[in-house]
Amino acid sequence: MSAAALIGLDWGTTSCRAYLIGADGAVLERVAGGPGILKVENGAFGAAFDAMTGGWSARLSVVLSGMIGSRQGWREAPYARCPAGADDLVTAMATIDHAGRAIALVPGLSTENDGMPDVMRGEETQIFGALALSGRDGGLFLLPGTHSKWAEVRDGRIVSFRTFMTGEVFAALKDHTILGRLMREGVPDTDGFARGVREGAALGSAGALLNRLFATRTYGLMARLADTALSDYLSGLLVGAEIAEATRQTRSAVTIIATPALAQRYTDALHLLDHDSTLAPDDCVATGHWRIARAAGLC
Amino acid sequence: MSAAALIGLDWGTTSCRAYLIGADGAVLERVAGGPGILKVENGAFGAAFDAMTGGWSARLSVVLSGMIGSRQGWREAPYARCPAGADDLVTAMATIDHAGRAIALVPGLSTENDGMPDVMRGEETQIFGALALSGRDGGLFLLPGTHSKWAEVRDGRIVSFRTFMTGEVFAALKDHTILGRLMREGVPDTDGFARGVREGAALGSAGALLNRLFATRTYGLMARLADTALSDYLSGLLVGAEIAEATRQTRSAVTIIATPALAQRYTDALHLLDHDSTLAPDDCVATGHWRIARAAGLC
Question: At residue B85, what are phi and psi to the nearest 5 degrees?
Fold first, then answer.
């Protein structure tokens, strides 16, 4: 086991995870369940940081990534622009002086597709970690969730990325429209999900989605799907639409960075649509902290 | 002014409107603001009916249309299937015996597109009314709203229709996702709406919508749109996507059946996308009641 060389925090909106990282990039210890930035009151980020990392040496360098670098966080670290490698993130880093200690903040990334600006914060660090762990210097990376991010990496740089609001749209439709009315919770319905994925991927236009969403109701009304399958059908519809668009111009294998349950869902959907995928190791974000800290000469 | 010949009620989920109709189909009197079926407690539909129509002769025939004929209404009138003319609606009518008086319930319509069932209740009566008033026997009819309906009519029959969840999706996204966070109410922003309409109509896939929705946030973050324009942009995005899909295979002029404000919004959007439209007269639903009642020999 190597000596501790770095502290890395993946500090998002709703949760925080802290890592003690060795000189070779290995995770030596982790502290999960820390407060997301929305749970830290009166800007007491320093105290929250101390509470999570108090057991570790105060002489170690520290790298923070995620929404902690947003306007609502500890300090704003302006976005770096795509294409961006680890060096570009280092150039755009912000620093916090905390109790005489310099804490580095990884900037988020911005890009633009067809005139639409897009942004990420925290995912860039996960991607650089997964990339380092894979031994490759390119590929298509998927970080599914409330806001799914799809990023294309070439020659060690994040060339472009796109955000899909899949998870948040699903929750809003399920909880706040008529579509949730007929749904009943049950065991996950694989067939309902698969049907949604295939139908969602086959839709020919944006408007066709506004129409097909209503099938979540009419399939239920007409007993074409069980009430326990409707939620998975709706989820599949959105995930299928997302994947079809995100993979439209590429046949690259997809590297998924996600919790096991969500990763499995997308693995299944990608497989249904004839795409290969691999799963990035847990805690790849810590490898990202280490990779960026090395580029910055911090460890 | 012709003698009263019929009572027609357009009785939906959230409101009810009653009409006293002459032998020539003209509206002689109207009572607006009646309770929608969700506001009628303990199945007291008869009392609600009496309260709304008590001033009119109890000897007149009565036709009801809308969700009053659903499972949650007074009595269920099973759907007639497309293609359907006024005669087909008459064949499928249900009857309620209320205080010795036979009240006719217009059935809803069902159809199927690409394996997806679709349904309407009440809109069919509005369409037959608008059709009768237009003197034509076909066209494309749009009833925008929470659930927009687009119906194609040929030779006096509703051949097919599709539901788009545009209005309800807009409300869910605005009120229950991050997209509402940066929005500020202001005067309607025509440019923001137009930009949304054009971008929504240009989207190439269902998944592209899940991506482009996020522009409602990034345009705000990057100051590309004023905070007072974001709501109209999002609305336009969805309306544009809906119109592009609904008019994909036709250049027919569109007849809009809607309240003035909503009709204006869709008229503007259709115009931006190079489609002609006309507005059906107010109260065309009463003409629909009259048209169906005549086919049924009720007046």
Answer: -100, 180
Q: What are the phi and psi torsion angles at B128 (to 5°)?
A: -65, -30
Q: What is the ipTM of this complex?
A: 0.96
Report chain B's terminal Cα–Cα distance, integer Å.
Answer: 16
**Which residues lie closer than 8 Å to B51 by C-beta, 6 or more apart?**
B34
Contacts of B123 in chain A (CB under 8 A): none
Predicted confidence (pLDDT) per residue in A32-86, tens digit: 999 999 999 999 999 999 999 999 999 999 999 999 999 999 999 999 999 999 9
Between A166-176 and B166-176, two packed helices, what is the crossing angle to 10 degrees? 110
Nearest to B116 among A119, A171, A212 (CB): A212
Residue B249, pLDDT score: 87
Helix, coil or strand: residue B35: strand
Mutation target for A interface from B165, B203, B235, B249: give the one with most A CBs within 10 A: B165
In DSSP terms, A290 is beta-bridged to none
Q: How far apart are alpha carbons A83 and B53 in whole angstroms?
A: 69
Here the tokens at position A240 are 């299928």
Q: Give the predicted TM-score (pTM) of the model.
A: 0.95
Q: Phi and psi (nearest 5°) for A109?
A: -120, 145
Contact B143, B257 (CB under 8 A): yes
Instruction: Determine, for residues B177 and A165 on separate chains, whether the beta-carbon distance falls below 8 Å.
Output: yes
Report how far residue B124's alpha carbon sits from residue B130's, in angstroms, rounded to the nearest whole number.
Answer: 10
Nearest by Cα to A230 from A240, A241, A239, A221: A221
CB nearest to A245's CB, from B168, B169, B211:
B211
- CA dist A240 and A64 (Å) reads 34
Give the full edge-to-edge strand order of the sheet including A27-35: A27-35, A15-22, A4-11, A61-65, A101-105, A94-98
Q: Which of B165, B205, B221 sits opposite A206 (nearest CB)?
A: B205
pLDDT tens, B129-138? 999 999 999 9
Question: d(Cα B110, Cα B90) in Å, to the nearest integer?
Answer: 15
What is the least distance, in Å, from the CA of A225 to any CA of chain B? 12
Closest Cα to residue B280, out of B126, B51, B94?
B126
Cα angle vertex B74, ends B73, B77, to 5°?
Answer: 80
Q: Which residues pair with A254 in a beta bridge?
A: A140, A277
Residue B210 and residue A117: Cβ atoms within 8 Å?
A: no
